[in-house]
Design goal:
single chain, about 400 residues, alpha+beta, Endonuclease, Chain A, 2 domains, 17-stranded mixed β-sheet, globular
């Protein structure tokens, strides 16, 4: 598994930076929307019509009114609570709005399939990719601490390719409706320094690029691997790769949520702590708020970040998008920020800690939760058919 080391598969970008959730992210989102002149694509899993959603919507509507082609695509299940009045207001302002494949829509679609990626592209020249949804809990509202999440901001060829992907996804949703195409690639020289590649996962369409990125990262790490994941339930293949990595001397650190919005998933995750501790994998639980970020860093020189969680829903049931970054100085900077986060805001789970806080009754509940989650994951990733690749 050497694909992740092939630098020729990456494209050099003008600018790349890590963006934290909260006001830093949403200020940038609104700034990008307000500066757009030609096109805007916003694809998101959860869009809520709360204060944050309303603020973003106002920016989108203003952009549409000044002649920008605005396309908003949300998941048909996770964003099903959007009111008809809210959607109609967007459409009246000129925003093109679609919901992605709700459950049981027709025989053509697939049980459990989700639009899980989170992308904003402006004028095919700049983009944001991460795991941050449009809702108050991801924002800094009234002094609250937002869920911990991150995104990558890029300028350059990756942004144009992301717009093309957004158009492709939009067109697959509209059926026989009017098709759209990406704007012309922006011109301009500028300095290109950061190597980035786009990775997609859509099992139904035969894409497993992010899965392969994670597999390659684990298999090729020589010294240290850091994984941050909001719902960490790796399948057997990933667990075998991690076990082999530890045996060849790799230090593996896994950062997970201490508090969770899905308690049964957290209990299932804690069932795997015993496997991790047996294999000398270090576990840290984030304490300040709910952890929702998804990334992995290999040997401080390679990283992947985006919407993909290490579980079977991301692997088989969801449309996901990540960015892989190949640049030692940049990735080292991200690594240092993650290390600071571990030091200041996380608690380590040791074997002694686990034995002290999780007695026989709690461990039994963890086992039951794990089996229930496995069943849910199986049902969520069962398809009546898989499309034949053309």
């Amino acid at each position: 598994m050497s694909g992740v080391n092939q630098i020729e598969t990456y494209k050099l970008q003008k600018a790349t930076r890590l963006v934290y959730g909260g006001s830093e992210y949403f200020d940038l989102v609104q700034d990008m929307i307000n500066r757009a002149e030609k096109s805007l694509h916003l694809h998101v899993y959860i869009y809520e019509d709360d204060e944050t959603g309303t603020q973003v919507a106002e920016c989108l509507m203003n952009a549409a009114k000044r002649g920008v082609q605005v396309y908003l695509l949300v998941d048909g299940y996770a964003s099903k609570e959007l009111s008809g009045q809210f959607i109609e207001k967007l459409k009246e302002a000129g925003v093109h709005f679609q919901q992605f494949e709700p459950l049981f829509r027709s025989k053509k679609f697939y049980f459990g399939r989700r639009l899980h990626h989170k992308i904003l592209v402006a004028d095919s020249s700049e983009a944001l990719v991460g795991g941050i949804n449009i809702a108050n809990k991801y924002n800094s509202i009234n002094g609250t601490i937002p869920w911990l999440d991150m995104a990558m901001y890029v300028q350059g060829e990756a942004a144009y390719e992301l717009e093309r992907i957004c158009c492709e996804t939009w067109n697959s949703t509209t059926g026989a409706g009017k098709k759209i195409k990406a704007c012309d690639a922006p011109t301009g020289n500028g300095q290109h320094t950061i190597a980035v590649r786009i990775r997609r996962n859509d099992w139904v369409k035969g894409k497993r690029e992010i899965w392969k990125s994670y597999a390659n990262l684990i298999a090729n790490t020589k010294e240290e691997l850091v994984i941050m994941c909001s719902y960490f339930l790796p399948g057997l293949t990933f667990r075998k790769l991690m076990t082999k990595a530890v045996k060849r001397g790799v230090r593996i650190t896994v950062i997970v949520a201490g508090k969770s919005d899905v308690p049964i998933a957290k209990n299932a995750e804690r069932y795997l702590y015993r496997w991790m501790l047996r294999n000398k994998i270090e576990i840290y639980e984030y304490q300040k708020s709910i952890l929702h970020a998804k990334m992995a860093i290999s040997d401080r020189r390679l990283m992947t970040i985006g919407s993909y969680n290490m579980n079977n829903i991301s692997a088989y049931a969801s449309i996901e998008l990540n960015l892989d970054i190949h640049n030692k100085p940049f990735v080292e900077g991200v690594y240092e920020k993650v290390l600071q986060l571990v030091t200041e805001d996380c608690v380590q789970v040791t074997a002694e800690h686990y034995q002290t806080y999780y007695g026989a009754r709690k461990r039994l509940w963890q086992y039951i939760s794990y089996q229930v989650i496995r069943a849910i994951l199986y049902l969520s990733t069962f398809y009546f058919k898989r499309e034949k690749l053309s």
